[in-house]
Amino acid sequence: MSWLLNSSIGRKLIMSVSGFFLVFFLIFHATMNMVAVFSEDAYNTICGLLGANWYAVAGTAVLGGFVAIHFIYALLLTLQNRKARGNANYAVSVRPSGVEWASQNMFVLGIIIVGFMLLHFSQFWYKMMFTELMGHHEVALGTSTVSPKDGAEFVKFYFSHLWVVVAYLIWYVALWFHLSHGIWSAFQTIGTSGKIWLSRWKVIGNIFATVVMLAFAFVTIYFYARSVIDPSTVAMYY
Amino acid sequence: MTTILDPKKDSKIPEGPLAEKWTSYKGHQKLVNPANKRRLDIIVVGTGLAGGSAAASLGELGFNVLNFCIQDSPRRAHSIAAQGGINAAKNYQNDGDSVYRLFYDTIKGGDYRAREANVHRLAEVSNNIIDQCVAQGVPFAREYGGLLDNRSFGGAQVSRTFYAKGQTGQQLLLGAYSALSRQVAKGSVKLYSRYEMLDVVIIDGRARGIIARNLVTGEIERFSAHAVVLGTGGYGNTFFLSTNAMGSNGSPLIQAYKKGAYFANPCYAQIHPTCIPVHGEFQSKLTLMSESLRNDGRIWVPKKKEDAEAIRAGKLKPTQIKEEDRDYYLERRYPAFGNLVPRDVASRAAKERCDAGFGVNNTGLAVYLDFSAAIQRLGKSVVEAKYGNLFQMYEKIVDENPYETPMMIYPAIHYTMGGIWVDYELQTSIKGLFAIGEANFSDHGANRLGASALMQGLADGYFVLPYTIQNYLADQITVPRFSTSLPEFDEAENGIKQKIAKLFAIKGKHSVDSIHKKLGLIMWDNVGMARTEASLTKAIEELKALKNDFWTNLYIPGEPNDLNTELEKALRLDDFIEIGLLMAYDALNRKESCGGHFREEHQTPEGEALRHDDEFSYVACWKYVQDGSAPELVKEPLDYEFVVRQQRNYKS
Amino acid sequence: MDKTINIKLKIWRQKGPKYQGAFKDYSLDGVSVDTSFLEMLDILNETLINKGEEPVVFDHDCREGICGMCSLYVNGHPHGPDEDVTTCQLHMRKFKDGETITVEPWRSAGFPVIRDLMVDRRAFDKIIQAGGYVSVNTGGVPDANAIAIPKPIADEAMDAASCIGCGACVAACKNGSAMLFLSAKVSQLALLPQGKVEAATRAKNMVAKMDELGFGACTNTGACEVECPKSISISNIARLNREFLKAKFND
Fold first, then answer.
1. Fewest 10 Å CB contacts: which of B400, B587, C42, C76?
2. Do the Cβ atoms of C207 and A8 come within 8 Å?
3. What is the ipTM of this complex?
């Protein structure tokens, strides 16, 4: 199986498969977020399940692994590709019509996404699963303390800050661009694409990216709007 | 006293009935055993359909092959530009085709100036070519049932042309190139791209190597072998403007000629009727539109001179001319073949109309090729499926939409039937030197039928030369490899170096192209579609003067021992002038009209070509004497044993 | 007579692979819009030669869009701003009066510059030598009509086979990848029954050779397809991926 690591198509397959996995995770995450809109209790139950249980930790490790693989291979391929391009750059270079902007900027988009991911982790994962793993049962949130299992409180707290909301929305836009190219590209790489399916996967990829990102954005804006309309829900943190 | 060649002894035409000659030859020829093949080196110059397929096939047989091309890759050889198709006597259409009919059409199309035995062999192996190409993965056009499709071509009443869209040459060449690449990977063929042959080296009367220039470094290098094969194409670029690629040249032919090989029938040059007309003085080449367009396109000019004048002045559009005011002159003159008459006939008819004042375009040097009837009959989508890429090409060049307005076409130099004289074994008059494809003279007589060039190139390379060369090499198995430090190599290399030094020493003021354009004009005006004793005599004088002009006024920038495109062109131009002279001498000698050679003094009352079989039924072979002297004529009589010669008739 | 334009040219001049190159400015007046781009360069070269300078070196041969010899990166596009043409089919009517035209060589580590605008594309030959063929010797093959091939399949193979090997795909690709070139050949032969026999080894060997020669990996930007003068589809790349992965998983 050394071809997987050594050949260009093998490396691309790794990108494709790890990408698919992350897409599935996004579906799960978006669904879970939507639950918070309807029932904070239900959301907290899910957060509880995802706490310091062995399967949640294992799942997180696997997820982290895929993110790492996706990122490392992106880095490897980008370096290899830059070398293949040669040192000389074109003096005039035009993006031909029909070529998506995202497709030529996937690595930059990826870095933006990872940057916001760190923010996200510091706000949620670090204060939830990580805290639990450290053996604590309480964590500071604003001027108050809450249980690390009480996910809904984290959501309400962070999404009451306008800058956080704006930052997350930027993140979603970057993710949307990344997915709009990434999804059909992943199908192209594993070879399940032909003259007709090529355009179908593009449409499917765009619809998917839009739906999932709208779901994320909806939840984010929803909680911000709630905090503005009814500040009492988050007053204890200020 | 003119030397006369003996068809049996010199041309080595086998005995026996026509249809059995090739079989009988193969049954009796000498072969080389596999162990000995490895010890024999063969140089193949050129990687087109003939050179590429020969190098691949010889490599497969186990010979040690050195293959040269001037382009960066063997896949760029100009065979790639052939559009229409390749003939074969498969009779898949059940329309009455046969090996004999293909043979007969080719002989007749060549105006009875080709060797019967060679042409019959060509027709015989034509079917193997199609099988071979399909096995290589050439994507020929197919019918809905999955079997191969055919189209019609000029000069035939059957559909025997196999095609791959309008890119048949490309697909066949890529097939040969893939076979060649396989041999390169195996190590049986060594490839030298961006190398140009500059001389053939003769040792004890036999071709034993070549001198070639590495076009990237400018270095002159030596290569030795037991035999040398020239598959270097034709010399149409003598005319400067032609449908040939910019790099196509006749220099290897002149090198062979100057070393003693006969140059046969140089005056037989084919003028292709369907090319995009000339637009301006800086035009560098003429673009061909496939002859297949004549399957559905109708050729016409205005019936009334005033209409033609109005069109030339830009006051009238072709679509405004009523049906009854159009002269479909090919359909009118040749009811039986109509728009599908052979190329020479179609070209001359176009010239005749334009000379008579009915030509269109602002120059008056064009006729219409109209698809409106075909679009009406078949629908635009069918026409597009058949010719879409050609229509697109036309529109990109001319900026007019051929679906809406008729195309304009005019004849242009396309192919040269003449070439180095070869015997039945494709061996030139120098032992160990072979010529294949367009580089030789052998199969097309005075005119080549459409879709037959691909057939001949591949026939020579795949199925003829790999046999016949063994008859020569069988005697060479005890000859050890040659050292390239032999005095003959020194002499050849020094000769080239001196010539290059001489070219640089001229230090004149004119570029190669500017002199080449002058050559083109002399040729087109005097040795072109219509020739006369006066025009040819004038041409010889002008060409001699041009040679002088070249050697006094040429300027080559840059260095000799470096990449130098101007030097490459200069070396080729010197040889083109030599070829121009040969063409003029040959045309002057041939006091008849036949195929691509039309002498105005020799025509029928209706303006058709008039042959004189009693006097000129021979191959005119020209032997080099010395620089500045007229060449010496050697005749190979063409005895027609099997076909009765007739005045060609495409009327009924 | 014809409409003419005046143009300014910025042309890359480089003595050889080891020399530093630079742009040089030229101007040409009264260029007929009916001349082709390469004829315009001929005119420029004629003026340079008349001045005793060395002409601009560029690759070209058939000048009818089929040999694949011409290259040139014109105003940010391989084969220039017109669609579905090679540089030799590009005409000056595509440019405006007074326009500055920038002409660069193909730039990719796989295609080192030989001189000025001429690059070395022998890497493509090496990729084909690695398996871009059907292993049949001359003679001894079955009748051409022995195997029926559905017309849509034959047509698709033909579309893939129309690749001219010019290298515009590599030049256009930000990754310097040769996947479109390679996939066109793999696709053509994988579609046809004659080529299916060796489909697995072909895909593996050709990809290995491409990687070895230092071409980049495909990131599906599709720039190659857009700039390809023969409109070779990137669906061929999907087929190549499929063939390659199938072959590897069957090992």
1. B400
2. yes
3. 0.98
